[in-house]
Structures are given as structure tokens and as C-alpha cells.
Amino acid sequence: MSIAAERFWKIAAPVAVGGLLLLAWQLFAQVRTGRLKLVPAPAEVGAAFVQHFGIIAEDALVTGTNALVGLFAGTVVGIVLAALAAWLRPIDAMTAPVVAAIAVIPIVALTPLLNTMFGASSQLGRQIVAAVAAFVPVFINVLRGLRQSRPVQRDLFRAYAASGGQEFAKLTLPTALPYLVTGVRIASSLAVISALVAEYFGGPSDGVGTAIASYAKTGNQALAWAYVGASIIIGLIIFLATVLVERLVSRRTPT
């Protein structure tokens, strides 16, 4: 297959799949339970999105900010603890069960507790939920990356009388960097999902998750689905940004 054909199919295949999904959505929108449709038609959702774009954008900004703050905080804490765990065996033994416990914390149960602690008008509880979700994949991937350098490589650096800082900068860090970026890429999606779930279960009245819950309960399905579309856009933007960073890092990291 030629290069031009490969490029064509890379574009045509996703477009075709998207068209088939829209067609299936349109057909499914014709199904009714009594007088109500199961889902609104794509045109209705699009019209609601355009009509209420201003308020949707404001709520999306709140959710995106919560996700980014949580992603940043979880990434920083994950990097620091992973570095300590890779450096000191006792810390590694202590953090392993803690990280395992954090990985299974139910967000649904954690969110109301944090809203009670910090107040129903504070976004901090939602940001902490996103940070908790982002922390685990970053910690695991960074710790794995810091342990990827081989003993023979470290011995070579010591044979050339390299200092600990030089060994870290020239060997340990470049080896661990792709693992860090992969962890952040995974954590980005988890941070967005966690921020949405946290908004769904209380707190301030703004945010995409709160709007979805509110409009779904009041029967405004088209607007609720428009907010679902906004949440997908938020996730895609953050995810694509991390993918771009990952590609830049992989190009500059020597193999």
C-alpha cells in the first residue's frame, strides 16, 4: 500500500466510523418508551449545544480547571513519592500498601466526605478527587521508569567517575522520562472522569457534571447530552495535549 493510500485510510476510517455511529444514534433516537424518546436526536443535541454554548463553555472551563489542577497535583506527588521509593527501600515498602489502598478508593464515597470537609461552595474537594485518581498511574509508571536503568549502565558511569547527579541527569532521568509521560497520559483521562463524577455528587452548582445531573433530572435530555459532548471535548483536549508531549519526549529521548 502506498503512502498516499495509507494517509487516506487513516482519515477515511475514523470518518466512516463516526458516520456509522451518527446513523446508529439517529435510528436509536426513534425508539420511544411511551411518549418519551430513549435519547434525543443528534440534531437536537447540536442545536442545544449551539444555543447554550456560552454557559456550557463556562461550566466546561470549571471542570477542565478542576481536572488540570488535580492532574498537576497528582503528578507532582506521584513523582516525589516514586523518587523516594526508588531511592530508599524502607519508603518503597511503606508506600506500596498505601498506593494499593488509594487505587481502590471509591470516588462516589470520597466526594461527599470532601465536600463536607471543605464546604459545599469550594472546588477543592473536586480537585483532590482528581488528584487522587491521577496519582496512582503516575506513581507506578515513574517508579518503574526509575528502575529501568541496568546495573551494567550504572557501573559504566561509576567507572568513568561520574557523580550521582551526572548519573541521574544522563542515565536515570532520560530512561524514566518516557514512563512519566505515559503515566501522565493515562492520568489525564482519569482526572477528567474523576472531576466529572465529583461534580455529579454534590459541591458547587457549576461544572459539567453538575449540569448533566441537573438537566437529566428535569427532563431536558438534549441539553444534558450537549453537556456530555462538552465533557468529551474536555477529555480529548487534555488527552491530545499529553499525547503531543509524549511524542515530543520520545523523539528527544535517545534509544
At a glance:
By secondary structure, this protein is mainly alpha-helical. It is built from 10 helices and 2 strands. The chain folds into 2 domains: 1-31; 40-252, MetI-like (MetI-like fold).
Describe this structure in words.
The mean pLDDT is about 85. The protein folds into 2 domains: about 30 residues; about 210 residues, MetI-like fold (Orthogonal Bundle), CATH 1.10.3720.10. The protein has about 260 residues and is mainly alpha-helical. The radius of gyration is 23 Å and the shape is flat. Strands 1-2 form a two-stranded antiparallel sheet. It contains 10 helices and 2 strands, in the order H-E-E-H-H-H-H-H-H-H-H-H. Helices cover about 80% and strands about 0% of the residues. The chain starts with a helix and ends with a helix.
